[in-house]
Amino acid sequence: MSSNCVLVLDLCVKCNNHISEGRFYPALKTIDLIKKVYLQNIPVKVLRMLIEERIPIIKSHIEKKVISQVIEDMLAHQRNRVIQGLKILHIL
Fold first, then answer.
1. Mean pLDDT across the chain, nearest whole number?
2. Which ranges carry the Exocyst complex component EXOC6/Sec15 N-terminal domain (predicted)?
């Protein structure tokens, strides 16, 4: 296997670790690096095709996770504001 394949696989592992740790921005940067710099230079066609197929799936997964976190944060903020309002009105 060429050094390019090993390098790309190492970047894939790093991307996976970023996603597992909830560090989505570095994961997206790693995906972009793979796509823009290394993807076309992967000599093993099966590996190149597999990575090409997975990139949109991974990006979609990250998008869903980020949207879920944003909604969760918004709801928590809204709950806190309601509680603060009720405390001001001496209802709680």
1. 93
2. 3-74
Range of the domain at 53: 3-88
What does 63-77 look like in DSSP terms, one character per residue?
A: HHHHHHHHHHHHHHH
What is the per-residue pLDDT for 50?
96
Q: How many domains are there within the chain?
A: 1
Interatomic CA distance for residues 84 and 17, integer angstroms: 39
List pLDDT tens digits, range 8-44: 999 999 999 999 999 999 999 999 999 999 999 999 9
- What is the 8-class DSSP label of residue 43? S
Alpha helices in 1-92, H assignment, sequence order: 3-20, 24-33, 45-88
Helices 3-20 and 45-88: crossing angle, nearest 10°? 20
